[in-house]
Amino acid sequence: MLEKLNEEIIFFKETAIMEIANFGRKYTKDTGKHVYPAWFGEGDTPTSKLIYDKSINALNEGKTFYTYQNGTPKLRSEITKYMNEVFNINTKPENHSVVTGGMMGLRLICDLIVSNGDEVVMIGPVWPNIRSSVLLKKGNIKEISLKLKNGDWVIDFDLLLNSITAKTKMVFVNSPGNPTGWVMPKEQQKLLLNHTRHLGCWLISDEVYHQITFNDFVSPSFLELSKPNDRLIVINSASKSFNMTGWRIGWITHPEELGSHIAKLVQITTTGVPEFLQNGLVSALENYKTITLELRKNLKKSRNIMFDRLVTWNKVECSIPEAAFYAFFKVKGINDSLDFAKKLILETNVGVAPGIAFGASGEGHLRICFAAKDTFISEIMDRLEPALNK
Ligand SMILES: Cc1ncc(COP(=O)(O)O)c(C=O)c1O
Q: How far is the CA of 34 from the centre of ligand 1 (A)?
């Protein structure tokens, strides 16, 4: 049956994050044993009532029709207000398009920019869906890897700049980064933006974790440095900042000229984000200070509970992240992280993401999402300790 299907999809490999989650789910089905899930990148707190009440109201008001492809005027205006306030910038509603989550934002941008054989430079280890989005468009990925040095993730910045040449179509930066939590310093952002500006290639900045920081500031955005006609697109999402992963809603910030082309792509994919969901995001943005204050407080607590122990484990080498909500650490002596993660499920009933999911530079590492209640974190640490501290 499969012969008549698109081979590129049939032979496209599932990410190792999904592979481990499916392994864990099957284990639960076969044995009845619970697996503690720390493999995906999401918190365990449901969306605030402040947000979903607005969506319920919208449904009650009959907001159940097709809507604007780039987002409702109300939401685009609210996004503009939020972005301008948070980053002290001066964007207009025409610079923002609402998309079905950061993921759809990435896919649309790859549709817009990447063609067969195009060179895309990215910094690894990197969230697998980013790589997959480029590979689906048959782009060629050139990856520059972060290295863990004295407890910090660092990039060979000269190597990064030298890798971006006249042949490069697109540069992809994810800061704060999943899985490492690495944040590109403002000075490097400035030099990188100048370099891409000079070469005329596209710079795509995935800033979906910009609110998930532990120093009370949002992480620096390329938008703070850019000019209106820069080939810069920034991807954002309601998922991480507002506990809205299941809503599938985000936004991209782009030069005004791109809006109508993004609208065409939205039209032939999702045809737009349901209006009642957009109303929920309006409320999240109106209340962002209260929501993110609480979120950061809880995340900081969970991070500290996890890292107070993790840093003392003798098989572990790690960096304490200042942003995003992952522990991404090297496990001494392992060279097959997927196999090791499977063994952890069998031995400890804890599901973690294998480092290989984030590219070759992630091999030998594991990623645990710490966006969870302190009781969950303590439980999984108790369970993991015998395997990682011996
Ligand atoms: C770096 C990064 N970008 C984008 C996304 C997409 O988020 P969403 O599609 O939920 O908005 C994620 C989700 O894990 C992510 O980690």
A: 26
